[in-house]
């Protein structure tokens, strides 16, 4: 229901866009509507442009999937893609088929901003498709110590793909990242519904093993955990992050999910105790803070918030504790997780004089953190057996700049000790942790492949990035000012219901509804603004410092033939996502691949010494003799056996993953 979020005119425009994108197909209309509902309910994105763009993006991907299914089954109805068209699409780039699906769709009728979001989303989708096609490991060719998990994104590949998505969207609209994150949740929900339907119908479960995760479920779940949930967090959309993690956790480990969920969300004694402890501790901390006159006289603002750790986070913490203590996870309960229940105190000190320096205020805030710690320690003292502990990240910040006090202790409830944690930090520390220097991926990277990965970790660098973001946002708003989506002054659905014009309704109730919607939008923009500033800084830093490319290594054929065949399937290839220093060339990617690939490390010769058994291609075309072509974000460097090159180009270099909507 769009009424709480959009005016009647705006809702009419969105409904009109859904029908236009689906070309009247009832199934596409339903799917696009469900997809838009995720943006509204899970992401709180209610702008007309982004919802219209999402509807066209969804329907364009369905169109691509339908066309590929027709071509693979030979049922294309005489409209098969000709050789010239295939060559044109290949030269146009990885995103050509997704852009072609938008061409002629009519999205331009809904404004330049909607077109921009849809095009940026298509570009991101093309990068995801390349990753699904290229990133893989050759299990049979790797030593047991280096074997991985086939096509599953993990570790450096996931980290570099996240950075690649941000880099290719550096000049794009951040809403495109949100659309693709929502698409992952849509995909997970669709897979879960499909499994439930098959299990309910019986008949051998329709080929689905109830105890085994399907490849599609595994891939979508790992993408959610390692790509899209972190993206959602960087966008400040924590409800989407939680829903992605919960859906992926449920799909990958249904039993563990059920057990952990029951611990913290059920109606048993444990969940009741957690809620009671959380409520009591939060109220007590508020009283402690408010009753301390000295503290209250020296602050400008203070907030006390509380949370219960989400099931996926609880499970990960249990695994960590199990590894440290050699205790089986099966023998643990949520009471073994010290921060399953936590409260956070965030305050801002007021300046005692007009000329007080920021450094002096910052120093006082640090001392006030320890003052609050003393108050908490007095309220919940350490009796020896309670397991009270302090993690002091104020005097000893984490390497990424994170600063806070974490005081873990216990509270008695119904004769049992219940653990909880109090986090104490200043407003500046909190902003730094949530969306500032400490939150930047740059400071969590292990370095750039083939480079030293040195970066500017100063707060000044973050502030410069934030200023760049503000200037670019102002420029983008000025460009969009003249492009507004069309109005639907009197749109009515075919069934007689729908959204009537509001032009003649000037009642007080209508005015109040509009004011509530505007206030909700202002609150949302205020909440997201610092996250988007930090995200923009991250994208600027990564674009300036690194380039992210796909590298695929095709092994020699085992039958001595000159080209890949059915006897040497593409699944034998190795592939990864590399992060290289900005300005790197094909030769640099090859040098890193020679150290990484099992096929290239066994003395077959250097690719550029005239004796090698392999040759390099960039986006399907043979490179120069010295590999001096400069790399761009999203390029595909294919390393193939020399005897498989029958011409200057190789049609299989970029892979051909299926493109079902996800």
Could you give a short description of this structure?
Helices cover 50% and strands 11% of the residues. The chain is of the alpha+beta class and 662 residues long. The longest helix is centred in the last third of the chain and has 38 residues, at 508-545.
List the helices and strands and how they pair.
Elements: H1 8-22, H2 26-41, H3 48-73, H4 83-92, H5 96-102, H6 112-134, H7 155-168, H8 174-201, H9 215-234, H10 238-252, H11 254-265, H12 269-291, H13 293-297, E1 299-308, H14 311-325, E2 341-349, H15 358-379, E3 389-392, E4 405-413, E5 416-426, H16 427-435, H17 459-480, H18 508-545, E6 546-553, E7 574-581, H19 586-596, E8 614-618, E9 621-622, E10 636-641
Parallel strand pairs: 2-5, 6-10
Antiparallel strand pairs: 1-2, 3-4, 4-5, 6-7, 8-9, 8-10
Helix pairs in contact: 1-2, 1-3, 2-3, 2-8, 3-5, 3-6, 5-6, 6-7, 6-8, 7-9, 7-18, 8-9, 8-10, 9-10, 10-11, 11-12, 11-14, 17-18
Detailed description of the structure:
The protein is of the alpha+beta class and 662 residues long. The chain is built from 19 helices and ten strands. It has helices at 8-22, 26-41, 48-73, 83-92, 96-102, 112-134, 155-168, 174-201, 215-234, 238-252, 254-265, 269-291, 293-297, 311-325, 358-379, 427-435, 459-480, 508-545, 586-596; strands spanning 299-308, 341-349, 389-392, 405-413, 416-426, 546-553, 574-581, 614-618, 621-622, 636-641. The strands form two sheets. Strands 1-2-5-4-3 form a five-stranded mixed beta sheet. Strand 4 and strand 5 (416-426) form a beta hairpin. Helix 3 crosses helix 5. The longest helix has 38 residues, at 508-545. The model is unreliable at 78-85, 138-150, 440-447, 453-459, 482-504, 560-571 and 647-662 (pLDDT under 50).
């Amino acid at each position: 229901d769009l009424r709480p979020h959009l005016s009647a005119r705006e809702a009419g425009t969105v409904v009109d866009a859904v029908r236009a994108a689906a070309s009247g197909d009832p199934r596409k209309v339903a799917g696009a509507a469900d997809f838009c509902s995720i943006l509204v309910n899970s992401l709180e994105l209610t702008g007309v442009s982004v919802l219209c763009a999402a509807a066209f993006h969804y329907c364009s991907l369905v169109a691509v999937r339908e066309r590929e299914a027709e071509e693979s089954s030979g049922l294309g109805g005489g409209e098969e893609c000709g050789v010239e068209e295939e060559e044109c699409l290949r030269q146009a780039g990885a995103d050509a088929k997704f852009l072609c699906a938008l061409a002629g769709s009519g999205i331009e009728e809904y404004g330049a901003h909607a077109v921009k979001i849809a095009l940026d989303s298509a570009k991101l989708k093309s990068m995801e498709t390349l990753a699904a096609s290229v990133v893989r490991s050759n299990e049979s060719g790797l030593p047991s110590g280096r074997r991985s998990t086939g096509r599953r994104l993990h570790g450096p590949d996931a980290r570099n793909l996240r950075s690649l998505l941000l880099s290719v969207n550096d000049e794009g609209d951040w809403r495109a990242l949100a659309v693709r994150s929502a698409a992952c949740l849509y995909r997970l929900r669709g897979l879960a519904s499909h499994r439930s339907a098959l299990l309910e119908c019986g008949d051998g479960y329709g080929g689905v093993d109830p105890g085994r995760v399907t490849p599609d479920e595994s891939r979508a779940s790992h993408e959610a955990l390692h790509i899209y949930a972190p993206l959602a967090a960087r966008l400040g959309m924590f409800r989407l992050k939680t829903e992605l993690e919960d859906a992926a956790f449920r799909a990958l480990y249904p039993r563990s999910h059920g057990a952990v969920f029951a611990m913290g969300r059920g109606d048993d004694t444990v969940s009741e105790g957690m809620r009671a402890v959380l409520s009591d501790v939060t109220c007590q901390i508020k009283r402690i803070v408010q009753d301390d006159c000295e503290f209250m006289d020296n602050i400008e603002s203070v907030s006390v918030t509380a949370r219960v750790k989400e099931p996926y986070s609880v499970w990960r913490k249990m695994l960590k504790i199990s590894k440290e203590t050699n205790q089986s996870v099966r023998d643990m309960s949520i009471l073994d997780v010290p921060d399953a229940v936590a409260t956070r105190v965030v305050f801002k000190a007021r300046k005692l004089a007009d000329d007080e320096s920021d450094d002096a205020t910052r120093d006082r805030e640090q001392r006030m953190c320890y003052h609050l710690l003393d108050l908490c320690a007095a309220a919940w003292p350490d009796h020896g057996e309670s397991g009270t502990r302090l993690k002091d990240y104020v005097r000893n910040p984490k390497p990424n700049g994170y600063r806070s006090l974490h005081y873990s202790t216990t509270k008695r409830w119904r004769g049992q000790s219940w653990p909880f944690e109090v986090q104490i930090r200043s407003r500046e520390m909190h902003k730094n942790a949530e969306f500032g220097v400490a939150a930047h991926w740059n400071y969590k990277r292990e370095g750039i492949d083939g480079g030293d990965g040195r970066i500017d970790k100063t707060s000044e660098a973050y502030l410069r990035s934030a200023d760049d973001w503000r200037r670019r946002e102002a420029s983008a708003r000025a460009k969009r000012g003249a492009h507004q989506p069309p109005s639907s002054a009197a749109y009515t659905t075919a069934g007689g219901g729908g959204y009537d014009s509001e032009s003649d309704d000037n009642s007080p109730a209508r005015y109040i509804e509009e004011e509530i919607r505007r206030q909700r939008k202002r609150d949302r923009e205020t909440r997201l603004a610092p996250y988007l500033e930090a995200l923009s800084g991250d994208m600027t830093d990564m674009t300036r410092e690194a380039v992210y490319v796909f590298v695929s290594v095709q092994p020699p054929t085992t039958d001595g033939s000159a080209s890949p065949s059915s006897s040497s399937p593409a699944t034998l290839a190795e592939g990864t996502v590399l992060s290289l220093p900005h300005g790197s060339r094909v030769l640099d990617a090859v040098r890193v691949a020679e150290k990484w690939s099992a096929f290239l490390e066994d003395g077959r010769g250097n690719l550029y010494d005239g004796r090698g058994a392999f040759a390099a291609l960039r986006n399907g075309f043979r490179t120069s003799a010295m590999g001096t072509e400069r790399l761009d974000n999203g390029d595909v460097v294919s390393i193939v056996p020399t005897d498989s090159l029958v011409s200057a180009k190789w049609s299989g270099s970029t892979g051909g993953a299926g493109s079902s909507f996800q």
